């Protein structure tokens, strides 16, 4: 018998890590939860951890020339040796996206208006009941992605800015220093 309550509809939402998640991978992470199934688990991509590399640093093949200047983000701790692409777009004031797309699909999205193409090394994954446990422990705040995600900086400032918009309580959490005892 599953003792975990099924969370509210969380697929296609953003997960904002609680400041208590201090490990390097999920510390101040904003994750797009692209796939979720209570029976199978979940798949997501960290949007705000740039790796400092570009696609061209990792793929010197001229077939990828159009993608060489794309920054590579650390998508999560799973399969960091694999590169994948995602596209985000705004249509009729709604944010849409496609994840786990091929390099050829990514190249096609590059030419579309109001579209952001991103490259990721690795992904974030949860096994059955794992994400439910973490939500129950309040390790994540869930929020709706909005089209302005396309124009925001996808770096360390994204987590803080999104947290500040959730509620007055989250605004306080966003401003807590990493080393609170050092102050």
The CATH H-level homologous superfamily: VC0467-like
Q: Which second-level CATH architecture applies?
A: 3-Layer(aba) Sandwich
Q: Tell me, what's the shape?
A: globular
Helical segment count:
5
Broad CATH class? Alpha Beta
Helix vs. strand class:
alpha+beta
Strand content: 35-45%
Which topology does CATH recognise?
Answer: VC0467-like
The biggest beta sheet is recorded as: 9 strands, mixed
Measure the end-to-end span: 47 Å
- How many separate domains? 1
N-to-C series of helices and strands: EEEEHEEEHEHEHH
Alpha carbon gyration radius: 17 Å
Give an overview of the whole structure.
With 183 residues, the protein is an alpha+beta fold. It has a single domain (13-173), classed as VC0467-like (3-Layer(aba) Sandwich), CATH 3.40.1740.10. Helix content is 21%, strand content 36%. Strands 1, 2, 3, 4, 5, 6, 7, 8 and 9 form a nine-stranded mixed β-sheet that branches. The chain is globular and about 45 Å long. The N and C termini lie far apart (47 Å).
